[in-house]
Amino acid sequence: MAAPPYATRSEVVAHYGLRVYVGLVLLFLIAPILAIMPLSFNSETFFSYPMPGYSLRWYDDFFTNNRWQSALRLSLVLAFLTTLLSTTLGTLAALGLVRGNLPWRATIMAVLISPMVVPIIISAIGMFFFYAKLNMLGTLPGLVLAHTALATPFVVITVTATLSSFDKTLMRAGESLGASPTWVFFKVVLPLILPGMISGALFAFVTSFDEVIAVLFIAGPEQRTLPRQMFSGIRELISPTITAAASVLIVISTLLLVAVELLRRRSERLRGVR
User: Fold this and answer.
1) Quick check: 212 and 225 in contact, CB under 8 A?
2) Would you say the pTM of this structure is higher than 0.90?
3) Distance CA 245, CA 266 (A)
4) CATH level 3 topology of 68-271
5) Structural domain boundaries of the chain?
6) Which of 26, 70, 202, 234 is the most buried (most CB within 10 A)?
7) pLDDT, tens digit (0-9, with 9 covering 90-100), for 59-91
8) H-type helices in 9-56, by residue range?
9) What are the residue ranges of helices labelled H in 37-168?
């Protein structure tokens, strides 16, 4: 965005200086990613620059090795189930939070988003002792519920933000025309908040797909998600296949974030936000 035409020289310098500073900070943050991804094409088994040659052998190992593929499948199944559950619960919670007559709304909101504030190691330890009493350690339902608790706050925030600018007179108009509350929701409310729901679902998917701390505490020995497999690979045997797996995760996360941004802009257009 260019500086306003009426800005003074000092304001123009500050305007572009801030953007240069933000760009340098962003480059500093993504520099490790930019350094790791080329190593996934290294032809040798060691990490070094300059690379002696280029090869796709590590991607071939990632996509053909049964150990990596089983971890990828478990991560996808876990992320898919978590996304369905967290999107449903988060949307219902957001619909309740935007009601003007809801008592203790701030307190309820603080409790719902607390998994985003509490350090993940604390949450994982609490889940471990809680699931141990319920004999749910090492089970798929236990992992799904744990990931749902961590992912639902993202859905609550995105859907609540979408509903905050929602024109509630549209609901009253639908009801005045004889439509039932259920019909109004599916025909009026849902189409307008759908971009926010999908954005929250994508955040929930990424949260579950990348989660490793809770898995280390709750999962059984044979339940190895992709992040856990990468974590174990770093500790046991460092292989360049880890860089290929990390590159795949980076690409997936980037595509999902781009999709979230596109959905956010579409949601603003639908709600008339400029």
Assistant:
1) yes
2) no
3) 32
4) MetI-like fold (1.10.3720)
5) 1-55, 68-271
6) 202
7) 888 888 888 888 888 888 998 999 999 998 888
8) 9-36
9) 57-64, 66-97, 105-112, 114-117, 120-134, 140-164
